[in-house]
Amino acid sequence: MAKYLIQRIIYMIITLLIIISATFFLMKIMPGSPFNNLGGKITPEQQAFLEEKYGLDEPVPVQYFNYITGVFQGDFGVSFQYENRPVSQMILDRIGPSAELGAQALIIGAILGIILGMIAAIKHNTWLDYSSNIIAVIGISIPSFVFAGLLQYYLAVKWQIFPVSFWESPIHTVLPTIALMIFPMAICARFMRTEMLEVLGSDYIELARAKGVSNNSIMFKHALRNALIPVITVLGPMTVSLMTGTLVIEQIFAVPGIGEQFVTSINTNDYPVIMGTTILFAVLFVVVILIVDLLYGLIDPRIRITGGKE
Amino acid sequence: MDKATEKYSKEKFQRVHVREELSEELTRPQLSFWKDAWLRLSKNKGAIGGLIVILLIVALALVGPLMNDYKMDEANYDAAYLPPKVPGLGWLGLDGMQTYEVQGTTVDDAVQRGITGYEIEEQYVLNTEVVEEPNESNDNYYKVAMEVDIYAAKGLDDTYYWFGTDNMGRDLWTRIWKGTQISLLIGVLAALIDMVIGVLYGGISGYYGGRTDNIMQRIIEVLSGIPNLVIVILMIMLLDPGLTAIIIALSITGWIGMARIVRGQVMKLKGQEFVLAARTLGANDKRILMKHLIPNVLSVIIINTMFTIPSAIFFESFLSFIGLGLVPPDASLGTLIDTAFDDYRVYPYMLVFPAVIISLLMIGFNILADGMRDALDPKMRR
């Protein structure tokens, strides 16, 4: 176990190093200077001054070394667009709404998904099963921004049940959360249904029935617990969908989060912010995958970790 | 002897002669694997529904732009922001009427403001309806919905834009179907590239095993740790925006899933007797891989490719939505939705049509892929 953990962490660090380096060098060969957006109003002297100020006049390897050492100290440089604001500070300022939105979507989505999947499996081949399947297919298929747009148009603009945008009170979080949770909910429901059906068909459930255990007890004590374990594995794809989703949904609902910042930075060539956010996303993803793999082994003793993927 | 035994007495029965050669005969027509899979698929109503939806959209995407005389990049500023109007389909709401929401201290004032604001003559205002009476929350203004015959107001009585026009007066019918073509093209091309790279990589890695496999798997392990969202965005920023950039960006990490699946299958298959037999007969590695292993993995490859198409279509529209997609006047469903978002509150038709088409397309592909998984690989049935 310890050996496996160390091996995994080494891979994690290699992956992150590759991502940081790749991001850094890509940004270096990217067309367009960060100062293009100043409207061409600066003289070459001013440009040279700005470049010196941000350390852009040094040779690339030196810049690279400085950046890497900075990253490990939590310093991601300063934004080009916002006067002297450290990227780490910008990210910290904006992580709140994103984290809140993401957590709400993940928790509500997962719970609803598990319930949907369970109902579908228990009422296998009835209209309940079919309608839960239809909801799952729709949730997986419809792009989150299309869904968000339709929600915003009908529920906010037309019928005015919810506020159209901004991030001020819990009621403002309703629409973005629904838009963001629909995909995690759908994959959770599908996975749960499959697992539950498999568990319900297994020998020990048969035995429990033969012993005369009540139906409720079978469902909740025997089947649900075992079916829940593999659902942990969809946490990976769920995190990815949340990251993708925040980029567009924060924009649509004007949520002051990281995703919205990221999209703005892409459009203004604000390289330090792009790099910082990219690294944050990568770390988040890698850590979630590691946690999933470890949890899976811990919760279910039947799975013995032997290193490498199955 | 009781009655029953008498009734069915021995003499009444005759032995059927079993002919050796007939007992081996097949009474049902022989089914190849693919015919069998098709039979199973055709029984799946959902999958067939998905297939029909896809075929319809593909047909319209190909034929649609030819059905009227507008060009996709033909701007006509006099005809900007026209709602959909189809001859004979007025009852469906496709009547070319535009509803504006206006505010004023009285109903007349509101309408008057609307008329000056939107530059229309009064005679074309067909209907007004009070949406909201003055109250505290709207600063004591009347909110009035006024219905305008905007085609007549712009002097375009006999013109029909089936899906309306956009901010530059381009025909949305033509643009939407052209955009659907592009989205489909991106989906299919990205899926094919992923398939080729994934099958080769996974096949080689799984077949040769040992050290080759070890190194190739470590590479995959590191690559798969990188969220593809990040790679795709970085690649798009690096390359000149456009169709090629999107396809390359989608293919860079897209093949990993396929490579893993193919490797697993090949490793499972390569120890089986038929491979040993082929080797004994002198077949070389290339032949064994291409003629024996890959065909056996084919169903898994097809299933996986079918799932890649909708995800590629989604990713393209997502990139377009955050401003990293195609450059106008080129259009894909994603860019159309992105443009529509700017003013969909007044002109919802701009959002609704591409949104519905992309949703139908995605649902169609996902259901069909599910059905194909069930049909091609009954063991994986979920």
Automatic annotation (TrEMBL), chain A:
The keyword Transmembrane helix applies. GO terms for cellular component: plasma membrane. Keywords: Cell membrane, Membrane, Transmembrane, Transmembrane helix, Transport. It is found in: Cell membrane. GO terms for biological process: transmembrane transport. PROSITE patterns: ABC_TM1. The chain crosses the membrane at residues 9-30, 101-122, 134-154, 174-192, 227-253, 273-299. Residues 95-296 form the ABC transmembrane type-1 domain. InterPro entries: BPD_transp_1_N (IPR045621), MetI-like (IPR000515), MetI-like_sf (IPR035906). This is ABC transporter permease. Belongs to the binding-protein-dependent transport system permease family. NCBIfam families: Opp3B (NF045471). Pfam families: BPD_transp_1, BPD_transp_1_N. It is a multi-pass membrane protein.
Automatic annotation (TrEMBL), chain B:
The chain crosses the membrane at residues 47-67, 182-207, 219-239, 245-262, 297-326, 346-369. The keyword Transmembrane applies. One of its GO terms (biological process) is peptide transport. It holds the Pfam family OppC_N. It is a multi-pass membrane protein. Residues 180-369 form the ABC transmembrane type-1 domain. The keyword Secreted does not apply. GO terms for cellular component: plasma membrane. Keywords: Cell membrane, Membrane, Peptide transport, Protein transport, Transmembrane, Transmembrane helix, Transport. InterPro entries: BP-dependent_transpt_permease, MetI-like, MetI-like_sf, OppC_N. It is found in: Cell membrane. Belongs to the binding-protein-dependent transport system permease family. OppBC subfamily. NCBIfam families: Opp3C. This is ABC transporter permease. It comes from Gracilibacillus oryzae. The lineage of its organism: Bacteria, Bacillati, Bacillota, Bacilli, Bacillales.
